[in-house]
């Protein structure tokens, strides 16, 4: 009888303690999961930021190369025009020289 009475008073207490312990363990587990999740999300965010900075750097480099290529294209176009101008002047000079030679030859033949 005494044992039954003792069990009646201790069993509910033990059940409450077991429930409290289970709740504490669950809460601890949830906290650990939340901390782990937070840590992983921070890692992902840092990696995203690092990747974003790399993408921005690559974009700047690509833009710099694009600008450089545009400048080179303008220089090449300018050089082509200069060469065409020189060729035109050379052709005119050659025609003028031929005309001068023909005129001198004509003068020599007449004399």
Task: Write a compact overview of the structure shown.
The chain is an all-alpha fold. It has one helix and no strands.
Describe this structure in words.
The protein has 111 residues and is mostly helical. It has one helix at residues 2-110. The longest helix is centred in the middle third of the chain and has 109 residues, at 2-110.
Blueprint (SSEs and pairs):
Layout (H helix, E strand, L loop, with lengths): L1 H109 L1
Structural class: mainly alpha
Largest sheet: none
Nearest-angstrom radius of gyration? Answer: 47 Å
Give the DSSP E fraction (strand runs of 2 or more residues). Answer: under 5%
Q: How do the helices and strands follow one another from N- to C-terminus?
A: H
Count of extended strands: 0
Distance between the termini: 161 Å
Helical fraction: over 70%
Number of helices: 1
Low-pLDDT residue spans:
none
The general outline is rod-shaped
Task: Give the mean pLDDT.
Answer: 94
Key attributes of the depicted protein:
111 residues, mainly alpha, 0% strand
């Amino acid at each position: 009888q005494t044992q039954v009475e003792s069990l009646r008073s201790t069993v509910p207490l033990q059940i409450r303690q077991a429930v409290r312990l289970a709740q504490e363990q669950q809460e601890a587990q949830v906290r650990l999961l939340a901390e782990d999740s937070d840590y992983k999300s921070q890692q992902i965010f840092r990696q995203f930021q690092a990747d974003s900075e790399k993408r921005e750097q690559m974009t700047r480099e690509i833009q710099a190369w694009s600008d450089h290529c545009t400048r080179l294209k303008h220089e090449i176009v300018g050089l082509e025009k200069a060469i065409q101008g020189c060729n035109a002047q050379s052709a005119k000079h050659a025609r003028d020289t031929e005309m001068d030679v023909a005129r001198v030859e004509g003068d020599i033949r007449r004399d």
